[in-house]
Amino acid sequence: MDMIRTIHGTTVLICSEDGPRLESERDIGTFLGAAWDGDAALVAIPVARLSPDFFQLSTRLAGEVAQKFVNYRMQLAIIGDISARCTESKALRDFVYEANRGRALWFVDDLDVLQRRLESAAPAPSG
Question: Are strands 10-14 and 3-7 parallel, antiparallel or unpaired?
Fold first, then answer.
């Protein structure tokens, strides 16, 4: 079951392993709608919820998803080990590298890594 958690000041929709899959551009609304319902600023989607097409950049699905999240000012984190896919595709490896340098889309191995990313991105407490 999907859940909302606040991690280092960011409200995060953490999607469960099961549930509707993101298989095409029209499925993005399901995830964005759930995020808006929970006032989330970041959606964490496990690899298991993504179509294999997401990782084949020639399908353009990853780019469409990333752009839609940017357009709605929503951060996206893909959670799970995709190292085998990155080994097979230099284009995917480069895409992941560039995405992880920014703030809109992150690829992380697990929620602990996401928590560390959010901690380092959080503003320092004043006082």
Answer: antiparallel
